Predict the structure.
Amino acid sequence: MLRTRLIAGVTAALVLSAVCATLLTLITTAETFFEPLRVDPSRPAPVTLRLPQTAIPVFDSQSGHNRVRVVEVMVPRGSTVTDPTVAGLVRAYELSRRPPNAGSLLGLWFVYFLIFMMLASYLRRLSPGRGALLRTQVGLVGLILFCLVLAKVGLLYSNLPAYLIPVAAVPLWVTRYLDRRSAFIVSIGLSFLTASLHAFSLTLLSVYLAASMTATLVLGHRRRWLRYLTTGVASGLAAAAMLLAAKSWFSGGFSMHADLSSPWDSELMAAFAGGIFAGALAQTLEGPAIILLGAVSRARLLDLSDLDQPLLRKMAKEAPGSWEHSRAMANLAEVAAASIGADALLTRIGAYYHDLGKTRQCKYFVENLEPGEISPHEALDPDVSADAIMHHVVEGTRILRAGRIPEPVVEFAYTHHGTSVIEYFWHKCLAQGNPKNIPESFFRYPGMRPRTKETAILMLIDSIEAASRTIDPPERDKFNEMVQRIIFVKLQQGQLDESSLTTSDLRILSTQLTDTLCNVYHSRIRYPWQDAKSQGREPLPVPGLATEDEVAQAHTANLKARNSVREDMPQHLSEDEMP
């Protein structure tokens, strides 16, 4: 049986959420388990202590009354506390959380569990394409936990403002390799999780949401190396603007002059720098993030595009007809993918490798038969023929995995037919009366329906490229009718249900593929020698050899002859009348 990529189910979501909630609970409360890490106001602090926003009474000399002021106390690592009010707050805060009680830990664990379940459930049920894959979900939570560990270490051992944490980095990767809607839900979840490291501060949460959501919206599809950095600048500006608004509301005011007077301690500068830091981090760690999310790097794809690659040479030698079919598909698929913003290079590489299984028993496929050669299917029962045809999906997947081809490329091999029926042999079986009482399911490919735009495009191209060779004469209306029929049939069969292709995508693909086929199969003017041969006349002479010097001398002589003719012409002739 063909082994395809695993889809995350309810059990996987529960287990993954429980494990992540347990790990994050331990990460968040790590310092409270170790007494040497307790902050005592009278001794140098072993770690940086950041108290949640606290309202304290302050005497107003002008009014003669006490008023409430909201403060955020931070005890930097290695410092002591001299202010009695602050010292009392530090002692009370440390006393309330040490040692951690089971009720508090359970409550925090349950909050984390719900957040991770929200992420997993969205990816499993609402995220199109590869978001439902178990491999992708494990990689995503791995990235989230990695970033949270770095944030926790930075908060404990750094005196920099918490707004510097690059929360937007993970949503940038999700936007790039999954989709923008999934990145939004990740932005919400990750902002809550990161803010929980600082007692769920509403100001921090607001800034993190602004930074990550802006990054998700601004990141474009173009593959320029500066795209993450420019997105980071926009994210930082949004974070800084949100900080001003949140401080004014939650803290009762914000002095920009006082904040900017000390750049290293400036919260406004930290919020802006956090966005830029997120863009730089996303750019720097893009390679490892690709691996964790189950994608494949551009460098690896370019390496696989080399036509001297052993597996491609194997296909060109053992199944030359299928290889030419794959190359023709690659050209169509690349243009089609680019037209809707999908990964054009990945789609091209998938087209190269998707039919590699046809190198086994290549004569079972009509494109590999010599002119006049009899197909082996003529002597086989329909069910045997169908089994031979279906085998190329299983065998191709096995060959690609044995050759250590990345799974996103292997995915094209077991999705390009999905779970569709081999209609030719099924109908042949029915025409014979179905003597073996074989069910329709026997004639279905044992693959997986496409879960990405790229694999769905290849499924469509596989049928369209083969059908385009039967269009005679090659007219636009006929190409358009053929393309739309194939797309409609795939939709009717439910093969595109998981692909995330929208109706707008399908409309663009239909137009683009029709245009491309018209350009490929456009008519050309017949050469004179072709007309002479078809009419039975004498063959036209074939031009002889000429060197570059001979051509130059001939052109010079012709130019001199034309000039001499012009000099002998009457002067009253117009320019158009001259030879």
